[in-house]
Amino acid sequence: MTDINNRPPDWAEDWGKIEYSPMVERAAFAIATGGPVGMIPRAPGQQASAPPRTSTGNRETPIASPPGINLVDAICVAADQREWAQAAAPDMMAQMAQVMTMVMQQQSQMLQALALLVLRDDDDKPKRKPKSPSAEGEA
User: Fold this and answer.
1) CA distance to 14, 43, 96, per residue, from 6 (Å)
2) Are 37 and 30 in contact (CB under 8 A)?
3) pLDDT-based confidence at 15, cuts 50/70/90?
4) φ, ψ at 63 (rounded to 5°)
């Protein structure tokens, strides 16, 4: 018995029924892109067929930029300048790291100065002579 819930979908069955032939595929592609191309080259004197007539007649239209392209160019140039400026400026994390490094250097310099001050104070104080126990008993 076949389980109805485990059957492949209808499109899969239909897809499996289609025969594939590379030669038929190539022929369909050749027809869709303007027909098959002959293997024999044209004679040098033979002219190509005339271009189709358009609503403008046979006048050639000059090649020019489409309208509004100057606005697109200006937008692209402005975006490039903005990106270059952002890339040239250090980001916020780099600036914070630089500031923190400077603060740590200042703190270490302050600690060194305090340590020198404490050492000088200790050197400047007169040393007391320790009292001898025999001197106290005589007085």
Assistant:
1) 17, 63, 61
2) yes
3) confident
4) -80, 125
40 falls within a domain: no
- Establish if 117 belongs to a structural domain: yes
The neighbouring-strand residues paired with 82 are none
State both tokens at 16: 């499996």
Instruction: Name the one residue in this structure whose structure tokens are 């606005």.
Output: 71
How many separate domains does the chain show? 1
Dihedral sign, CA of 44, 45, 51, 52?
Answer: negative
Question: Per the structure block, which two tokens stand in for 23?
Answer: 């030669």
- Supply the range of the domain harboring residue 95: 91-124
Which residue in the block uniquely carries the two structure tokens 């914070």?
96
User: Which residue is it, tokens 């250090």?
Assistant: 90
In a domain, 49, yes or no: no
Q: Which two tokens stand for residue 37?
A: 């191309």
Q: What angle do CA 72, 74, 75 make, to 5 degrees?
A: 65
Look over the chain and give the mean of its residue pLDDT values, rounded to a whole number. Answer: 77
- CA distances 138 to 35, 129, 134, Å, are 134, 17, 7
User: Token pair for residue 92?
Assistant: 């916020």
- 52 within some domain: no
